[in-house]
Amino acid sequence: MFERLNRQPADKILALMSAYKADDRDTKIDLGVGVYKDAEGNTPVMRAVKEAEKRIQANQTTKSYVGLAGDPAFGAAMKDLVLADSVAHDRVAAVATPGGTGAIRQGLELIRLANPEARIWLSAPTWPNHPSIVKYLKMEMAEYRYFDDATRGVDFEGMMADLRTVAAGDVVLVHGCCHNPTGANLTLDQWDQVISLLDARGAVPFVDIAYQGFGDGLDADGAATRKVVAAFENVLIAASCSKNFGIYRERTGILMAVSKDSDQAAVAQDNMNFLNRQNYSFPPDHGARVVTEILTDPSLRADWEAELEEVRNTMLGLRRQLADELRQRSNSDRFDFLADHRGMFSRLGTTPDKVEALRADHGIYMVGDSRMNIAGLNERTVPILAKAIIDAGV
User: Fold this and answer.
1) Is 257 one of the annotated active-site residues of the chain?
2) Which of 208, 221, 285, 369 is catalytic?
3) 88, 231, 253, 291: which has the fewest C-beta neighbours closer than 10 Å?
4) What is the pLDDT of residues 233-256, one digit of tens each?
């Protein structure tokens, strides 16, 4: 049987990690892997997470299953965090998933159950796992323009032109905040225009929100998602706790489905439970329990929000430092977009050969499409990167 298998394409980011580890240059910089790092290059465990785990360990009396949808308290806490009061919560079905990736996969599976003919529209570019999963599930896929390599901002005119061709019942996947891989985000006014257009076309929005709190703050980063759910009868939301709680390896995510009323939500919930059963039965609980403990305890939540703000402001500071350094070295404002982008990532908008030159000549490791992880920098390495970018002729 296995002799019929073919080798799968190598994961580019994992290959980049291996090459970085093998590089013996002292000045090398890893801007490829999508995890937050502090000034020492570590991905720390947040204070509130450590305290929540202590409390759970002291008080937990069983490791029995919690249910196909996960702990209901986790679902309730995440609805409050992501959606606030933008929609009646009895209209929202929810299941815990193994990370945000699991939520995307389960959301696509739900779409396939509900409307097998739906096309899935993805931004160009988008997170590579989006098209990978869509293709694996053999679902029809289309793209809408999003990033302008010349301005390093959103190609809003191109985006709107493409979305005007969306058919009724199609699903349009959008990034709730901190667009991955570009870092370029829509303004709230642009979101209003997108929402109006998608509503007129009869499309169903699917919001991927993986970085809430990493851009402009928890509420500001949730604003677009809340606008979307307030405007449509049906919306899917995939949320991740990996980044804003720093619990990457715990694989903590949630899929939420907004329905037109509580009766429809009950049917959606039944189908989401069914899909969990088919894929992994009961979702992981430890990370979800940590998140619930933090979000429902005022002191833990306050400490978590304070540390999350420290993380966010650190990345904003690195963005400003890099933009200023490049302005000085290039004697131009063409890199000012770096200070305007939000989240962990920015896309330089340069060519693969220049990305390769950055790696070969300067030990700067970033993904081939020029996506770089701002959180991989620190005050010492920003000037090194800026010099390399100018020397490489980016």
Assistant:
1) no
2) 208
3) 88
4) 999 999 999 999 999 999 999 999
